Amino acid sequence: MDTEAQPTERDRSSHPDSPGPEGRSRFAWVPRVAEWLPGGRITLTLVACLVFLLVLNAFVVQPFQIPSGSMEQGLRIGDRVLVNKLAYRFGARPSRGDVIVFDGTGYFGHADYIKRVVGVGGDHVVCCDEKGRIEVNGRAVDESAFLYPGDSASSVPFDVVVPAGRLFVLGDHRSDSSDSRDHLGSPGGGMIPVGDVVGRADWILWPYDHRSHLTRPSAYARVPAPRAEQPAGAGAHG
Predict the structure, then answer these.
(1) Is 123:165 a contact under the CB 8 Å cutoff?
(2) What is the pLDDT of residue 179?
(3) Which residue out of 13, 25, 70, 212 is catalytically annotated?
(4) Helix residue spans in 7-89 (DSSP H)
(5) Cβ atoms 148, 174 nearer than 8 A
(6) Theoretical Cys-Cys bridge with 143: which of 80, 127, 147, 157, CB 3.0 to 4.6 Å?
(7) Which pLDDT tens digit goes with each residue over 31-51?
(8) Which residues pair with 127 in a beta bridge?
(9) Catalytic residue at 115?
(10) Between vectors from CA 171 to CA 91 and to CA 157, what angle results, nearest 5°?
């Protein structure tokens, strides 16, 4: 008696080497589109890469060129930084010490700007104490690690309470920076709405010998939270 198992029609049709209807139709559009495009698959690959980069640039990360010396010496004119556009998308908010890129339209000018966050909503920011330092919520901040050599914390005295949902920002090169100090009397008091923040600058990508990871300095780590009795919605004064 022949005991060898005989394959049935079902066995042959389900063989791994036999593509089913789903296998035959998967990505069937690729050669059709490639035939339609000049250059074929090469052009299709380039288009796909371009679309990917556009989506990445719009929603995830974006390169940004430093246009001025306002953030020296950490960020120099012509440096390319990579801005993390997801940093504040899922409930996180800018923190003191973060270097951010924001849309300055209506506040600073019709352009994107890059500055360091010094005060967040509710913070009481004063300059300067008897040692020439900025105070945030009564705590002096030692900015020597990133402040431009030879610069003071500010040549312009100020005493502000940052409104809720806004940011008080300064350039690291204080003597060469137009920032919140210069717009205290303007609408919004020089405070940037959190909603206008494009993202957080996380990396210097170029030039190659200057590449580095931008981290939040420890200078702000000991700053206390705003006092409950402090009016978080108050604007700039003094």
Answers:
(1) no
(2) 95
(3) 70
(4) 9-13, 21-25, 29-36, 41-59
(5) yes
(6) 147
(7) 655 555 565 556 555 555 554
(8) 134, 158
(9) yes
(10) 105
Separation CA 114–CA 89 (nearest Å): 18
Query: CB-based contacts of 212: which residues, under 8 Å, 6+ apart?
Result: 203, 204
Taken as a whole, the chain contains a residue count of 238
Known catalytic residue at 70: yes
pLDDT of 231 higher than 80: no
Question: Phi-psi category of 4—alpha, beta or left, where left has phi over 0 and alpha has psi -120 to 50?
Answer: beta
142 contacts 219 by C-beta, under 8 angstroms: yes
Could you read off the pLDDT of 16-31 as tens digits, one per residue?
454 444 444 444 555 6
Question: What six digits make up the tokens of 212?
Answer: 């580095």
Select the more confidently predicted residue: 109 or 136. 136
Residue 120 burial (CB count, 10 A): 25
| The predicted structure's pLDDT at residue 47 | 53
Q: Judge contact between 218 and 226, C-beta under 8 A.
A: no
Place of tokens 């920076």: 177
Q: What are phi and psi of 122, to 5 degrees?
A: 95, -15
What's CA 192's distance to the chain center, in Å? 14
Is the pTM higher than 0.85? The answer reads no
The one catalytic residue among 115, 154, 177, 180: 115
pLDDT digits 0-9 by tens, 162-219: 999 999 999 999 999 999 999 998 878 899 999 999 999 999 999 999 999 999 999 9
Q: Taking the mean position of all CA atoms in its chain, how far away is CA 157?
A: 29
The tokens describing 4, both together, are 């060898």
